[in-house]
Amino acid sequence: MPENFSPLPWVGTAVLVLCAVAWVVCVIRILRHGRSGFALWHSGPAGAHTLAALPHQRQSAPALESVELTPAEQDAFAGLVRNLDERR
């Protein structure tokens, strides 16, 4: 073996090539799995197609909540709005 031969660059290249091959294999498997389509999509309410992996979405908005403010809180809020409006 020559004196100036170092196996480190060859080992590093081999590791990078193995990582690249593993990445390509994983990407191909993911794309093939997604191509089946039957497992990913299902018919939701009213025949709408939705992703099975996503949770069911509400059709209506949540109930509105309100809180009565005291006159002091109303004044403070009005002052805050005035301050913010002046900064524009």
Helix content: 40-55%
Q: Strands of the largest sheet, in order across it?
A: 1-2
The rough form would be described as elongated
- Regarding quaternary structure, what we see is single chain
Total of helices: 2
Uncertain regions spanning at least 5 consecutive residues: none
Instruction: Write down the overall mean pLDDT.
Output: 80
What does this structure look like?
The protein is mainly α and 88 residues long. It contains two helices and two strands, in the order H-E-E-H. It has a two-stranded antiparallel ribbon. A hairpin with a 5-residue loop joins strand 1 and strand 2 (49-51). It is elongated and about 90 Å long. The termini are far apart. The model has no long low-confidence stretch (mean pLDDT 80).
Give a topology summary.
Layout: H1 8-35, E1 41-43, E2 49-51, H2 71-87
Summary of the model, kept short:
Helix content is 51%, strand content 7%. With 88 residues, the chain is mostly helical.
Quick tags:
88 residues, mainly alpha, two-stranded antiparallel sheet, 2 strands, elongated
